[in-house]
Design a protein that fits this description.
Elements (H helix, E strand, L loop, with lengths): L15 E3 L3 E4 L5 E5 L2 E3 L14 H4 L4 H15 L8 E5 L8 H7 L2 E8 L2 H11 L9 E6 L12 E7 L8 H11 E12 L1 H21 L5 H18 L4 H4 L10 H10 L4 E6 L6 H12 L3 H14 L1 H4 L10 E7 L33 E11 L2 E11 L4 E8 L2 E6 L5 H7 L7 H4 L3 E9 L8 E9 L4 E4 L4 E2 L5 E4 L1
C-alpha cells in the first residue's frame, strides 16, 4: 500500500494509520477510504469517460505492446535513463500499458500506481498479478486526479506517465505537485501529443478530403470517419486556451515543445526537454495509423495515406524536425540542493478586443446561416442554436446574446454540405470549410421575454481575438424560429 508515501489530503498531516477500511490521519482524524485495498483519495468526484472493460482491446494493449512501449521510452530517453528508477509513481496508469513492463523489468525499487478510476486500477492489478516478477515488488494502488495533495514531500525518485497529462485540466498544478513529491535529483517523464503536428496533420487531411470530394461528391462511411476525426482535433486545437470548455472534454491538451519546457522551468525543474518520439515522420505513416484506429477500409486507407504523403509537405515542411513527430517525450529533472525561487504563475489572459470591420478575414467574404428557436422554460430561456459559419480564418466561438446575457457555442462540427456548396473552387481553406458547423441548446437562466420578445445579438469570435458583429433582427420571439443568414 506504500502508506509512507501519503499525507492527509485534508490537513497535510502525517502519519496515516491503516484501520483496515481507511487511512486515518493522526493529526486531524480525517479518513481516506480503502476500496479493495486501493487508497481512494478521489472518492468518485472525478472519473474517466473511457470504457474500462474494452480499453485494452480497443487500444491493442497486451504484454507485447507493454514491452515495446517500455523499450521505446528507454531508447528515446537515451543517456537520461537512470541506472535505477528507485521509488516510482506512475500517474494515470490505466489498465497497465506501461506498468506491466515497469514491474517486470525490476528497475524500480517500489511502485505506486495511480489513476482517477478505481475500476482501471482493479484491472491493472489483475493484469500485474499474472506476472511472477512483479509479485516480488512492493506495489501500491491509489486514486489520484491531480486535485488531491496526497503525496508527501520528496518521496519519489521517478514519476512516469504516458498519455495522461493531456487528460488533466490543470497541467501546471499537477507538475507543481509532482515537483514537490520528487526527491532532489529525481526525474519525471511523460509521452504526450504534439500540438503543431496535430494541426499540420488536420490541415493535410482536410485538403485530402477536399480532393476526394472534388473527385466524387458521393458520401461514404470512410469519409465520415476521417472528417469526424478532423473535426474533433480541430475543436481541441482551437480551444486550447479556453480552460473551462476544455475541462468538459476527455482529451484536453496538446503540447507545444518550448512552451511546456518554459512552464516546467518556471515551476522549478532544473531541466526540461521535449524529445520527439518519431522525428521527421512522413504524414502518410501517421494517417495509416489513424485510419486503422477509426476502422477505415484498407482501400480507402491506401488512397488517403498516399495523398497525405504527397500534399502534406505544404504544412509539414514548415515544421522543425521535432514538431514533425506526433508525440513528445517530456523529460524533467529536479535539481539537487535547496530551491529559492518564487513564481508569479501564468500571465493574465489578454482581453478579447472588438475588431469589427478591421478584422482580417483571409481575403474572402464571410458566409453564415444561424437558425435560432427560443422557448420558455421554468428558470429562463432555452435557445436552440444550429447552423454554420464559413470564413477563411479560424473561429473560436459563435456568441449569442439574449437580453444582455451572452453564451458561446463552439464552431467545429463537420459540414461537408457547406464545403460542397460554397467551396468548390477552393477559395476557402478546407480546414475551415469542412468543419464549420454548430449545434447546441443554450440555457439562459433568469432571462424572460418581454412584450416585444427577446433582444438578440450574434457575434463571431475569431481565434485572433477579433469579434465580428452579425447583422440580426432586433428581437426574437418565443416559439417562432428565426434565420440569420448572409
Amino acid at each position: 500500500m506504500l502508506t509512507t508515501k501519503f499525507r492527509c489530503p485534508a490537513c497535510g498531516g502525517t502519519p496515516l494509520r491503516d484501520t483496515g477500511d481507511k487511512l486515518v490521519c493522526e493529526r486531524c482524524a480525517h479518513g481516506t477510504p480503502l476500496v479493495d485495498g486501493i487508497v481512494d483519495f478521489v472518492g468518485g468526484r472525478f472519473d474517466t469517460a473511457l470504457d474500462v472493460e474494452a480499453y485494452d482491446s480497443g487500444h491493442s494493449i497486451g504484454e507485447h505492446s507493454s514491452e515495446r512501449h517500455y523499450n521505446d521510452l528507454r531508447i528515446l530517453a537515451g543517456h537520461r535513463w537512470p541506472v535505477s528508477l528507485g521509488s516510482t509513481v506512475e500517474i494515470g496508469c490505466g489498465t497497465g500499458l506501461y506498468s506491466r513492463a515497469l514491474a517486470s523489468h525490476g528497475e524500480a525499487r517500489e511502485i505506486l500506481l495511480t489513476d482517477v478510476s478505481v475500476d482501471m486500477l482493479r484491472l491493472c492489478r489483475k493484469q500485474l498479478a499474472r506476472d511472477t516478477t512483479s509479485s516480488r515488488l512492493q506495489i501500491g494502488f491509489a486514486t489520484y486526479s491531480s486535485n488531491e495533495t496526497c503525496f508527501r514531500d520528496a518521496v519519489f525518485d521517478t514519476c512516469a506517465g504516458t498519455s495522461v497529462l493531456h487528460h488533466i485540466p490543470d497541467v501546471r498544478a499537477v507538475l507543481a505537485d509532482i515537483f514537490r513529491a520528487l526527491k532532489p535529483g529525481g526525474r519525471a517523464f511523460f509521452l504526450e501529443p504534439n500540438q503543431r503536428h496535430d494541426r499540420a496533420l488536420g490541415q493535410t487531411l482536410a485538403d485530402v478530403l477536399a480532393i476526394l470530394y472534388a473527385r466524387d461528391a458521393e458520401w461514404s462511411e470512410d469519409k465520415q470517419r476521417i472528417l469526424n476525426l478532423i473535426a474533433e482535433s480541430r475543436r481541441r486545437l482551437l480551444h486550447q486556451e479556453d480552460h473551462d470548455f476544455m475541462a468538459t472534454l476527455e482529451d484536453k491538451h496538446m503540447f507545444i515543445a518550448e512552451a511546456f519546457e518554459a512552464m516546467a522551468l518556471e515551476l522549478g525543474f532544473a531541466t526540461a526537454e521535449a524529445i520527439p518520439s518519431r522525428p521527421g515522420e512522413n504524414p502518410a505513416a501517421t494517417t495509416r495509423e489513424l485510419c486503422h484506429e477509426v476502422g477505415a477500409s484498407q482501400g480507402f486507407t491506401d488512397i488517403i495515406a498516399g495523398l497525405a504523403g504527397s500534399i502534406g509537405g505544404r504544412y509539414f515542411d514548415l515544421l522543425s524536425p521535432r514538431d514533425r513527430s506526433p508525440s513528445l517525450l517530456l523529460w524533467l529533472t529536479k535539481g539537487v540542493g535547496p530551491q529559492a525561487r518564487t513564481f508569479q504563475g501564468p500571465s493574465p489572459r489578454r482581453a478579447v478586443p472588438s475588431g469589427g470591420a478591421e478584422a482580417v478575414l483571409g481575403g474572402m467574404p464571410p458566409h453564415w446561416r444561424f437558425n435560432l428557436h427560443a422557448q420558455a422554460i421554468p428558470d429562463g430561456i432555452r435557445l436552440r442554436t444550429e447552423g454554420w459559419c464559413l470564413l477563411n480564418v479560424e473561429v473560436r466561438w459563435i456568441r449569442v446574446t439574449l437580453n444582455g446575457v451572452a453564451k458561446d457555442v463552439p464552431l467545429w462540427l463537420p459540414r461537408p454540405d457547406v464545403h460542397l456548396a460554397l467551396n468548390k473552387s477552393g477559395l476557402y481553406g478546407a480546414w475551415n470549410a469542412l468543419c464549420c458547423g454548430l449545434d447546441a441548446d443554450l440555457i439562459y437562466p433568469g432571462v424572460q421575454a418581454g412584450d416585444d420578445g427577446l433582444a438578440v445579438a450574434v457575434e463571431i469570435v475569431l481565434c485572433d481575438g477579433n469579434v465580428l458583429s452579425v447583422r440580426a433582427q432586433p428581437t426574437l420571439r418565443l416559439d417562432q424560429p428565426a434565420v440569420i443568414a448572409v
